[in-house]
Amino acid sequence: MFLRDTWLIFRRDMILSLRNPAWIAIGLMQPVLYLFFFGPLLERITESTPGFPPGTAWQILTPALIIQIALFGSSFVGFGLLADLRTGVVERLRVTPASRLALLLGRVMRDALQTIAQAVIILVMAFTIFDLRASAGAIALTLVIVGLMSVTLASCSYALALRLKNEEAFPAILNTVLMPVLLLSGIFIPITQGLAPAWLYELSRWNPFTHVVDIERASFRGDFTTDALLTGSLVLFAMTALALFWGVRTFQRENA
């Protein structure tokens, strides 16, 4: 029953998304622009600036842009839930025997699949148009990471939307949180000891998304050692578990 309920919610939300593919294209627009207009600049910077991590400019930028897709795309999915609350969809679902956990996981699965599809498009463009080189293992690991990131951020987004129930406060809080997270994650310019001031480097280490970006960059340059992957993997799994716990508890309370 639980799996069937999850599938029904997933299918409903996926059909709605496919009927309006413009949002998928809009989510891709910013990473694509960075790929085309910022990537060539980064090539020159990596060649002349000490302190950059190993790897080519595309091995540094492409995995970070994929994290950016999850960071912004999945963080704002709560708007869809707020719209469902406003139009009474959530109220109608509450009176059905559907599992409350399925109401969350069906949506989260849809969001993760969309994010992975967008990541594949970015990877194809980076491989075919630019000089990106990465192994099949790196690509597979990247898609797993971005899927878990999407699950994490979508769960938090839905939980926050249910708590606030306010379409004006929701984006204000998200923008307040996401901007420092973005800047401190080193997505655009890696924050390394040789490049950043000591205080900025130490501050970035407290940002969990920094470690996720690090493991993606390590995999793209072929570094699959424990030292390169362990910290980021543990951080990602912990974030995913905590986000799912928060999301499930919030859905159960609000839909009791």
| Gyration radius from CA atoms, angstroms | 19 Å
Distance, first to last CA: 18 Å
Proportion of β residues? under 5%
Shape assignment: elongated
What does this structure look like?
This protein is mostly helical. 79% of the residues lie in helices and 0% in strands. The chain is built from 11 helices and no strands. The chain has helices at 2-19, 22-48, 57-73, 78-87, 89-94, 100-128, 136-164, 169-184, 198-204, 208-220, 226-254. Helix 2 (22-48) packs antiparallel against helix 3 (57-73), helix 6 crosses helix 7 (136-164) and helix 7 packs antiparallel against helix 10 (208-220). The radius of gyration is 19 Å and the shape is elongated. The two termini are 18 Å apart.
Structure summary:
It contains eleven helices and no strands. With 256 residues, the protein is mostly helical. The two termini are 18 Å apart.
Features:
256 residues, 11 helices, mainly alpha, elongated
